[in-house]
Design goal:
The structure holds 2 protein chains of 2 kinds. Chain A is α+β, with helices and mostly antiparallel strands. Chain A contains 6 helices and 27 strands. Chain A is elongated. The chains are: A alpha+beta, B alpha+beta. At the A-B interface, strand 27 of A face helix 17, strand 22 and helix 20 of B.
């Protein structure tokens, strides 16, 4: 194999691809990136057996062929090469090393045979559709924070994507929860998505997708089956296994009849929560919200250090209520909201609270109170 | 195959398997018999780990010829008044030991009762009972067991080495001896190098004296007396300080009405009592007696009688946890005395010639360090800045060449380490004098307040290695590990706050359903209130499942199933849900660790003194969360001994 290409192109692709590779591996080939030179392009591919990213780069191929070399090392080498240089990659005659040349630098990396490299792409996809990168990115951005990290509830370790019917037509919806709070975001369902199986995309994959979708104008082609998702944008193809589990029936926990409505200036509220929670030192320290006509009083009590109180003017006319929340969760949600005014819909101190942007909206958050 | 009645011999051999498991169980049965006979002196002789010979002689009541003939028959005993298994006041009562031994070994019993003109003797050989014959003997009984298990070769094969069996016999005798300080025990034989002899102890301190004989005087120095009584149940004995712990639970002795037992409930209660001051894998040393009305306890659970059942197990448990916790709090900042002694042992210049090596580090050898010669490269002299400065002697100390060798005096710690790492020791030397000394001498500047020295932990004089506070007391010096000490103080404060304020719980959006065995579900639901206080709210969810509705907010996004299962197991094992408290305390401990003064932080004299005073005032401050001591004391007398002044 012999190929010549621009350092900049190679680096960009490697940046996408090498992140998939775990730092420590028990199977040596998983530390490597697959390089295949064929017909005017170089294809790079890396995998951790659950997630695979491959990307093509234009190259001048003199001798087609394929091999694998350590991914992180190759990335570091290319990153340190001088800008604007041409990189030549050539396998040695005994097929033991890959030589990388640029300017006056030469590297020889040990190779592992390409035939050992695992392939995730096999299998058929039942549904395929296209969605705007910006839309898909929004679904992820708005829900990612609520993904659970607790591994025993593996079915919560990802975002649940599915379609639902609504009066405004079919919607493509993303939901994530860690059992304490829930985030839901939706966009109009693209053609072809309707009837897709509900899928849970793992946390790591979600993170990688987020990083790949940095061009908002682009479109993303999504193909999926019960067990896999493949996502193509530009030269990049991401294939990932899905979490094999049943996402809970989240619809039941989204409160419908919460009648106490509260409207508050989002930025002010966020700052107030942040300020009063300075007093708390422990993880999970509660902030108490006391609502009465036209005002909200936020209180944090920490017997070690003292207490903090802040009063906000709000739009509230239901009967007074006191409710405690984890301040961390309140901040997370306040962070996610986009409108100037946040709407809280409350029932009582022991029931879930609904938080939304003001106006017609396609995101909603549910938060469970704390008992203090 | 036709069903048939087994022969008497086979029945006895099968039954023997339950009572007689190994030589040590023979010794246990025989010694208990001797005690029940009112002996004041019991002699045990063994050979080859008891496999070839065990002989137990006592000066007890003895038996008449008629009794003797009956004694080796099954279910014959003098100890049980007709049919009342509720009122057991003797160690034995089942009437099984002697026939069982006789069934599997060659048993000879010689005995003389006061009523008889001479002694009698009987032999049982693998179940073959001989005739009662006259024998020459003083008052008492001598039981001789030879060739144990010769009649059941299968069991013989499963015996351990002679050494292991010898050790097991020693354990048994020690265990019984602990409970009976007024009886003299001796244990000898060709299979042990050193005969064991526990002379009878008398007087009010008899118990402590016997404990000293059996467990060594270290335990006596590090023991807290336990005494508590509630509703007719009396707990007495001694419990070790948390800093005096072991890696296994072998040295935990429980006696119920004088009977050595090893009961899950008691072990669990002990763990509960020490949970907060010992790491999970360390074990306290205790000798505890529980005295209660025989009607309140059932010892007839297992032939070996190591298990017991209490009628009111919660009372026993509560009494024990309460009494030990109270003692721990009272012991306050008291730490193990062995710490100081061990340090002295290290410091003692064993066989080191003062003129050649080993002594150079002497001028500041206060920290409990490794032996002086260890880890030291050849010390070299570092030229110090010429000045009349009173503190200068510290700078002119000998310093190690290599950073990692600096286990002893680290007067020039930082520079030595930098220099050592690069091997440029020489070039750094001129700068040495400008660097701060590791021994913070600012405490010296303060006039030493005699009032401060009167405190148990004395007046802070210096901080060494930026972690050890050296304090002077009226008759010695105290070394405090500032990180461990402060961590414990912060931990106690956090725990108090937790207890005062209650545990905040995070309600769950989706209740977590945990499937469990039905009996686990019931156990959990029985304690639902107690768990709710700790922030874990659960309720029944059909048969074989509970639904968790709230979890302690402190635990964050946690493995709920694992937690609930662990708690269910804890309740089953020890009838207490310690795990949840432990988990919460663990979070508190982690926060304490992060929130406390680290080693390496220089403390001002005022800060050091404040820390010492707070330690004195805080209960349980003598050890860190893992049972390591937070401070040790060296007595002036001991130090003087080191220097040959005494």
């Amino acid at each position: 194999m012999k190929a010549t290409l621009e350092r900049t192109d190679l680096l960009k692709s490697l940046t996408h691809v090498h992140r998939v590779v775990e730092r420590r591996n028990t199977i040596p080939i998983l530390s490597n990136v697959l390089i295949r030179a064929d017909g005017g392009e170089l294809r790079l591919k890396a995998t951790d057996l659950d997630l695979e990213i491959s990307e093509t780069v234009p190259a001048l191929v003199e001798a087609p062929g394929a091999t694998t070399v350590p991914a992180h090392m190759l990335y570091e080498i290319v990153r340190k090469l001088p800008e604007g240089s041409q990189v030549v990659m050539e396998t040695s005659s005994d097929q033991a090393t890959l030589e990388i040349r640029a300017g006056r630098s030469r590297f020889a990396l040990q190779m592992l045979p390409e035939s050992d490299f695992p392939d995730l792409t096999a299998g058929d996809f039942s549904h395929s559709f296209e969605v705007a990168a910006a839309d898909f990115r929004k679904l992820i951005d708005r829900t990612q924070f609520a993904i659970s990290t607790e591994e025993t509830r593996y079915y919560l370790n990802g975002i649940y994507f599915h379609t639902v019917e609504s009066p405004n037509g079919a919607r493509f919806r993303a939901v994530a929860t860690d059992g304490h709070r829930l985030a839901q975001a939706e966009v109009a369902a693209p053609g072809g998505a309707v009837g897709m199986p509900g899928i849970i995309v793992p946390r790591k994959t979600v993170g990688e997708i987020q990083k790949l979708l940095d061009e908002p104008e682009a479109n993303v082609a999504i193909e999926l089956s019960e067990t896999k998702i493949r996502l193509t944008t530009g030269p990049v193809v991401l294939t990932s296994k899905l979490i094999d589990g049943t996402f809970p029936d989240y619809g039941r926990v989204i409160p419908q009849g919460n009648d106490k409505e509260l409207q508050v200036e989002r930025a002010e509220f966020e700052k107030a929560v942040d300020r009063v929670s300075t007093i708390s030192s422990e993880r999970g320290r509660a902030v108490k919200l006391a609502m009465s006509e036209g005002r909200m009083v936020l209180t944090v009590n920490n017997p070690d250090s003292g207490s903090a109180t802040e009063e906000l003017v709000v739009d509230y006319d239901a009967e007074p209520i006191e409710i405690g929340f984890n301040s961390r969760y309140l901040l997370d949600i306040a962070n996610q909201l986009t409108s100037e005014t946040a709407i809280f819909r409350l029932a009582d101190a022991g029931s879930p609270t609904l938080v939304q942007n003001s106006g017609a909206d396609d995101t909603l958050y549910v938060l469970m109170p704390m008992r203090v | 195959m036709a069903v048939r009645q087994l022969s008497e011999t086979v029945i006895n051999r099968i039954a023997a398997g339950e009572v007689i498991e190994r030589p040590a169980s023979v010794v246990k049965e025989l010694v208990e018999n001797a005690l029940d006979a009112g002996a004041s002196r019991i002699e045990v002789v063994t050979a080859a780990g008891g496999k070839t010979l065990m002989r137990v002689s006592d000066d007890g009541a003895g038996m008449t010829a008629a009794d003797l003939a009956l004694a080796v028959e099954r279910h014959c005993t003098s100890k049980l008044t007709e049919g009342d298994l509720m009122d057991i006041r003797t160690l034995g009562f089942r009437g099984e030991a002697l026939p069982s031994i006789g069934a599997v070994a060659r048993l000879t019993i010689a005995t003389r009762n006061a009523e008889e003109p001479h002694g009698w003797e009987i032999t049982v050989d693998g179940g073959e009972k001989g005739e009662v014959a006259p024998s020459a003997l003083n008052r008492g009984t001598r039981v001789e067991v030879r060739d144990l298990f010769f009649a059941t070769p299968a069991r013989l094969k499963f015996l351990k080495t002679d050494r292991a069996e010898t050790a097991a016999i020693t354990e048994v005798v020690k265990r019984i001896a602990l409970a009976h300080p007024h009886v003299r025990f001796s244990l000898s034989g060709p299979d042990r190098r050193q005969p064991l002899d526990f002379p009878a102890a008398t007087g009010p301190d008899a118990r402590l004296a016997r404990i000293g004989q059996v467990l060594g005087s270290d335990f006596v120095d590090n023991a807290m007396a336990i005494e508590a009584e509630r509703e007719g149940v009396r707990l007495t004995g001694f419990a070790g300080l948390p800093t005096y712990h072991r890696a296994n639970a072998l040295q935990q002795f429980f006696f119920v009405n004088g009977r050595p037992v090893r009961d899950k409930l008691l072990l669990g209660a002990l763990r509960g009592a020490y949970a907060d001051v010992l790491a999970r894998d360390r074990h306290p040393i205790v000798v505890l007696d529980l005295d209660l009305d025989p009607h309140q306890v059932d010892v007839n659970v297992h032939p070996a009688k190591a298990d017991v059942r209490f009628r009111d197990s919660q009372l026993v448990r509560g009494l024990m946890v309460g009494a030990i916790k109270r003692a721990l709090v009272e012991a306050g900042h008291r730490a193990s005395s062995t710490g100081g002694r061990e340090a002295l042992d290290f410091a003692r210049p064993n066989g080191v010639d003062p003129r050649t090596g080993g002594w150079q580090g002497g001028n500041a050898q206060a920290a409990p360090a490794r032996p002086w010669s260890g880890g030291y490269a050849a010390p070299r002299h570092v030229p110090s800045r010429p000045s009349g400065d009173a503190q200068d002697w510290r700078l002119s100390a000998f310093r190690p060449l290599h950073g990692e060798g600096a286990s002893g005096v680290e007067v020039l710690e930082e520079t030595a380490q930098d220099a050592g790492a690069f091997g440029f020791a020489e070039s750094q030397a001129p700068f040495a004098g400008f660097d701060a000394t590791s021994a913070d001498t600012r405490a010296d500047a303060m006039p030493v307040d005699a009032g401060l020295q009167a405190h148990p932990l004395g007046a802070a004089r210096a901080q060494l290695h930026a972690n050890y506070i050296v304090a002077q007391t009226e008759d010695g010096l105290v070394i405090v590990d500032q990180h461990a000490a402060h961590e414990r103080l912060v931990y106690e404060r956090l725990k108090d706050a937790l207890a005062a304020k209650g545990v905040a719980s995070q309600m769950l959006l989706i209740p977590e359903v945990v499937e469990l065995a039905q009996e686990d579900v019931e156990r959990l639901l029985d304690r639902a209130d107690e768990l709710a206080e700790c922030g874990l709210v659960l309720e029944s969810f059909g048969p074989g499942a509970v639904a968790v509705r709230e979890t302690p907010a402190l635990l964050g996004d946690t493995d709920i199933r694992g937690l609930v299962r662990d708690i269910a197991d804890d309740i089953a094992d020890m009838s207490e849900a310690t795990r949840l408290r432990e988990r919460l305390d663990h979070v508190a401990a982690t926060m304490a660790c992060h929130g406390s003064v680290r080693s390496g932080r220089r403390l001002r004299p005022e800060e050091m003194n404040a820390l010492l005073r707070e330690m004195e005032a805080t209960p349980l401050s003598g050890q860190c969360n893992h049972g390591r001591p937070t401070w040790i004391e060296l007595k002036l007398a001991d130090i003087e001994k080191l220097f040959g002044r005494r």
